[in-house]
Amino acid sequence: MSSYSFYSAARQRRWKKFFQGWQGMDWLLLLLPVGITIFASILISSTQKYTGETGYAINHLRLGAVGMVLALWIARGRYESLLQWRWLIYAATVASLLAVMAIGTEGLGAQRWISVFGFNVQPSEFAKLGAIITLAATLKDRDAPTPFGIIRALSITAVPWALVFLQPDLGTSLVFGAITAGMLYWSGTNPGWLILMVSPLVSAIVFHVSFPVWVGWALLTGVVAYRSLPWSLLSAVAAIALNVMSGKLGEVMWGFLKDYQKDRLILFLDPAKDPLGGGYHLIQSRIAIGAGEVWGRGLFQGTQTQLSFIPEQHTDFIFSAVGEELGFVGGMILLLAFWLICLRLVMIAQNAKDNFGSLLAIGVLSMIVFQAMINISMTIGLAPITGIPLPWMSYGRSALLTNFVAIGLVESVANSRSKLKFGAAKSLRD
Questions:
Q1: pTM of the predicted model, to two decimals?
Q2: For residues 164 and 380, is the Cβ–Cβ distance under 8 A?
Q3: Any idea what the Cα angle at residue 65 is, between residues 376 and 329, rounded to 5°?
Q4: Residue 110 forms beta bridges with which residues?
Q5: Contact of 369 with 177, CB cutoff 8 Å
Q6: In 255-353, where does DSSP find H-type helix?
Q7: What is the mean pLDDT of each run of 10 residues along the chain (430 residues)?
């Protein structure tokens, strides 16, 4: 064999070994977020057409490219190695959130960012991943569905949740709750227990919205407690009493909220009460989405979008640009893309080779589903305006990188799983 042939064969083996590192990847799971990111940059460019701010769309593409590279790099690694670093990751998560309170940059009524080499970084976004990793490492044990395991999981989430809530960042703090609930459910926790755990928060909020609904909710928790807890009658009475006290406590806590937070929580029910203030965003968003009708006005043709009637449309209200310019059809195609991402995440969770990998996938699923549902719902008036970004669509460096890193972690799970057909492996709940 000539030296050239030997060199060529060695090079082919190296390239083959290199690409084998991604042999088990779910390419659809990666390509869908990449496609959404490219699509988002076009919509962001449309929202900024007449403002002179042309950099947002380019930056979104650049950060998307960086995120894709990070996802590919993480996918080649062994996600199991995170187990030995879980407490270091958790400590770094808490430390970064404490740093925000100490040296953070304030903007839009909250202190959420840290300036790093001239760039504003939002640690609360990366804290979601820290919580997912730590919770997955904790819930993978067999005692996860027990009361002790649940209390341990909640205590882990409580610290970053409280620090994010105090920034104040109500929207992101709710994401922590959704992540925890989703991962607890997948680990085998009784669904009734999950309802009872979130019931005090629901009571505190609903008490100010509708008294009859609050009464009905309190009675419902009593029924759930009666059917899912020991000492049925005593548990039912205790659950109802707890929700009554939570409603009253919510009245006290309501006084600690800032005015703009109060507006976001209640004005979505009737934005016309303050059409030039707290209800302005929602009114303009609904006008834009309604104007799109079935097929939309066309890219770069939306009057609400082009004339900047909707503040911060390139971030929290990017879906209104989709509705106006691409109509009902464009919105449904975007929803289909998110549905496919969620489907792939569930498939990977079901086929993961261990509980840790399965829970990582479910944590990412819970994060994406909750953010997408709340963001889209708030743009059409079905949920309060909470400032939660739409994954891969809303402009934001930290959020975009967090979502791509999350996909990279799940791709690592897919890359390492046993070669099983879908449906051959059982979920943790089976």
A1: 0.88
A2: no
A3: 35
A4: 107
A5: no
A6: 259-266, 280-292, 303-306, 318-351
A7: 56 57 82 96 86 81 95 92 92 91 69 71 91 92 74 89 85 91 91 88 80 88 89 89 85 71 69 71 85 88 79 86 93 96 95 92 96 93 84 92 96 75 43
